[in-house]
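User: Fold this; tokens only.

Assistant: Input:
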Amino acid sequence: SFDREVNCRRAASAAFQEIVGRQGTFPHGIDILTTADYFSVGQRSNAYLSISDYIAQYSDYNTPLVVHLVTRKLGHWDPAVRELAVRALGKLTHRDVNLILKELPTILDACLSMDLFYSHGATLGVGQIVKSLSFIAKQKETSLQSLIGADLLSKIESLVDNLMKGNKLRGLGGELMRGAVSDFIENCSSAGLPISFQVLNSWKAVLFENLSDVEERIQKPTVTAMSHFTAQYYIKDGTLSTYQRDTFLAQTFKMLKENEDTRKGVSLALGALHPEFIKGKQEEIIENLIRCSRISDGTESWGESRRDAVKALAEVCIKMHPSIGDETIHTVYDSFMLSLDDYTVDKRGDIGAWVREAALHGIETLTLTLLKEAPGRLPVSVIQQMIPLIVQQAVEKIDRVRGLAGKIFYGLLYASSPDGQPIPGIPARDEVLQIFKQEHSNIKWGIESETFPLFVQLVLIPSYAEKVLIGLIVSVGGLTERLVKSSSQSLFALLETLDETGINNFCAIILKIFRDYQKVDRVSVPLLKFLDSVITSGFLEPVFESPDNTFSMELLNLCKNEINKCGDPNKLMASADIFCQLLQCEEEVCRRKCLVQLAIFLCHRFPRVRKHAADKLYESILTFADKTILPEERSEEAMSLLGETNWMNGTIEDLKPVRNQFCHLVNIPVPQVVKKLVQQ
């Protein structure tokens, strides 16, 4: 039943059944057969953890099972089999404690074996056995020391030091063994294994080193081990050793200033510490974690460390909120909101999304904890700012973040305290409840076709309008066809219902967003595409036709500022689309300035910018023929110049005369190169 391959386990079960049926010589054969049948042994974990424990109740089988695990499976080449063997040994310990204690010296010797796999499995096995023995000691109302014996206890206590002396935590296979050592320390700490001060410092040094490991599979068990280790050995009989605690924290704060991998592990370890260990130092821990969650010089690409710092920050606040002041709670929420604005991008993509997800989880768990245990401490002013930010995340371009934000927003909207009171400070909650009804609880929040028709209605509520539009701009001006289609359809359906005042308010918010995100390519480039899509749809025609229209000139100036000293051809081409769209406005000054800008593009150093500007200008002259962009008698010649000139392959010197002729036809000044004076 312990074989790695399912066919072998099933074959063994079938053979056992045959012998029991034909000869009946196996003890308890029928009872075992009903449990270890052909189908039940198919699942490996069931065979190791359930069936073996059942069979081991019969003494005839217990010893062979344990010996087989110790001699064969602890050193198996497959790590999954080794780990199952370790867990199986832990479960079988209670069947015969004396047998396990008899095999324990063999396992301890195997920890120092030259066979890496056997050494790894044995180290894990010792920790698991010690943990199981601690439960048995409690049941027998005796101490772990008396149950194990002084000699074995000494060997277990010195195991980590012996591994270090044998260089088992270094070189080839060192990472594998470091993970096993962390697991061993966790189990020994949970068991309450008594250790000397020297061993305590040795274990602490190993744990800190493991926290700095680049591998997440090493850091994860170490974080858990650190929590049990500090709770067991720094808090004795309910009394905390403050000196040792302060020394420990001073070392962690120092390590937070090191590289990204160290910061990741140490942040998570701080979040996992026992509340009694943290008490009295919670403010200092929070301050350090907030600093690690911020972007600083040289740490822009440390997205994972910021994510883990935000996770740890939430965990500390949830555990320690009764001991944290209101001002600190405000600061923590401010940190979460700053993390929601982390859009860092590197070669891995939008790594800021990891931080935003962690911040969303932190906001949810902290808010619901305070609502349940101390609803009066929820900061109303912060909630008013925070909820629209969550909504913004629910309409942006990454499915995973949208789904999480939508689910959290809906959950917070309907959350209530034990006395039935909702979260205070949610902007326009009654109006929002008319949109997000209780029947929407089963909606798939990551599916844009289901969520955008709901969230886009929040544009009509002033508290949400700007943040929702920022998210929609990124989605409508994005690259994913499905997302662009769903977001555009939802937005256009809303714009169709707006009156003149509503359209003017919409335009005012768009201009404000453009001003706020000037030169921020994450928003400004999609915004140009968004504007082109909205203007093409025809919803802004009343604005362009109004004699009091200031939108056109403001948009023109913002576009010119955006592309000033710009070397991105995609942004330049997107701005050319807007300049062409503005040719339909009634204001002649705006039209002439747009033509001048387009004329500059006709001789741009990027060939595709020249070609794109010429093509769009040609289309605009045809589309807006009624707007007198140029005298009717000159339109045919101007269009001939735009359509027949080779803008893509011609040199700038050859194209300038053509461009200048076009400027003459549309009656605008020829663009001149501004020469900078060099001071002698």
